[in-house]
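task queued by scheduler; priority normal; single chain, no ligands, no partner chains; default sampling; output format set to structure tokens
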Amino acid sequence: MKKLILGLSIGLACTRAEANICGTDYQNFNPTTNGLDFVTVQSSETLKPCIINMGVFVNYAANSLTYSKTLSSQVISGQKRRDRTLGTDFSVGMGLTDRWDVGINIPAILSQTVQDDYFVSSFGQTGVTEIKANTKYRFLGDDTGGLAAIVSLNKNLIEDNPFAGTNSGLTWNFELAADTMIASRWAIAVNAGYRKRSPGDAIPAMPFVPLKDQWIYSTAASYYVPSLDSKLIFEIYGSRATETSSIDADRNLNALEGLLGVKYDVNQNLALHVGGTKQLDTSLGGPDWRVYAGLNWAVGPICKQQKPTLVASNEPVPPKAKEEEQPETYRIDNEILFSYGQKELSAENLTVLDPLIADITKKGFDHIVVEGHTDSVGPDAYNQHLSQLRADSVRSYLIEKQNIPADKIEAKGYGSSKPVADNGNYQGRKKNRRVDLIIWRTPKS
């Protein structure tokens, strides 16, 4: 029996599919390229423009290879199968617009050990297993949840792969991802879609046949623990064959796997993942158990920042003012005004603040509330104090440099108590580090 031989050419721009159960079904563990919310399950959130996420994951799987049911029972009847594989995923994701991102990935097998490889679909040598690519577009939602469409593809690089067949084509995956946040701590997501395969010809003398189309699905939940700067992540992901195949394997065509992991924010840009998975069905590529570790490093935006925009206020209208006043909010990313962890305004970025104030004073106002906000990284007392210092710094600047009367402006620090995005990922934390200018005006009669 021929072994599976891995293609070693990585000169191609290898890209990754976002679907959970991918390609040859030896890579059931597929970390997302944007690294935002979960491990393998997609949220509707996309990377913001010019933000880049780089990820590397390593996973060690027990008993994931597929044996010939007939031949192995004739020779090793009564023996317990034992194989181990060490795999890796290196990925890069980038935001193109506010609602659109793309990702690339190189999955590979680093090593394997097999108890008796005569009747097992083992790898002939280590190397890259697939070429993968993905793109995601969010067409509904905001920072608390929404709905997105994901299109991904992968190209088998394994030579003599009986599960793909000879001269196999691309595999396309079409998915919808829906998610929501609950009480700023819980996040829940559901993915569902269809995998369209282009199988090649069956390899003679092989007990396995090329796989056909599948339905793919997954769900995930996470709980963010601010005091630990960590997320607890729970996932279930799987696939179901659209039709049965005559396959002499010790495993069925449907896959189902559960995951439990922790994502720890080492600092503002770097996140560490650790966890494990458990096979919930004896499926192709599904290990008895798996442990994994990974890093996501996010940077950017690497291109020019957008100017602050006028957004709807998150400040409730006071009862006495409902008839007379309606507030507006200018929301400004703190990173525009402050260096990280600092309370003093950056002089080079006052060109961002000054036009806003000119526009506010031109339209007229009754009074201004400067709100300071932070992300959840660090002690609550520190964040509360820092947010108040930043709000005070902006207030002082508006009084001293913009000649706004002191009795018409006040400063309030809220720490991390009023997030507008998920504190469990890089760009969500960045959005929560902000200054809001709440502008109260009396409507003209």
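post-processing summary
- Residues 5-299 form a domain with the Porin fold (CATH 2.40.160.40).
- The chain has two domains: 5-299, 309-441.
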